[in-house]
Design goal:
The structure is a homodimer of 84-residue chains. Chain A is of the alpha+beta class. Chain A is built from 2 helices and 3 strands. The relative contact order of chain A is 0.35. Chains A, B: Its EC number is 6.3.5.3.
């Protein structure tokens, strides 16, 4: 079975996100006001084969923990859909 | 009204994503097989005030086009939820 995982990796809420702060500060300069917070992280899509949804979930969880997210500073969440 | 926008900015499908390719190549080394494609982009959350959902949508669309996405190489999509 083939699956597609949609993963979001974000800086943890209690940490500063300097890149996001810069965007907040600059949006008024391009005519966009009313924005009080911006946080910027990664969006990763993984296309993978697995025997069943449980195995797919296990693989994606491992990929997040071991490679995609720095769990000290980032949190992640994902959804998995079956595509074939 | 306060809104929270969840934006994904991804490299366009027809373009190479070298960062994603490196992840595909390295996942087997950490014991994760069966992955045939990985694409890496940005996930941005924007918290903003607007008079109504339509105005919120317009602001987020403008932020994406003018600042967050390079529309030559990246595509974006977003969902907006009302939070207050």
């Amino acid at each position: 079975m083939k699956f597609l995982a949609h993963i979001n990796v974000m800086p943890k809420a209690e940490l500063l996100d300097p890149q996001g702060k810069v965007v907040v500060k600059n949006l008024p300069n391009i005519g966009i006001d009313g924005v009080d917070d911006v946080r910027i992280g990664k969006h990763v899509t993984i296309s993978l084969f697995a025997k069943n949804p449980k195995e797919a979930n296990k693989k994606v969880e491992a990929a997040c923990k071991k490679l995609l997210a720095n769990v000290i500073m980032e949190s992640y969440d994902f959804v998995i859909e079956e595509v074939e």
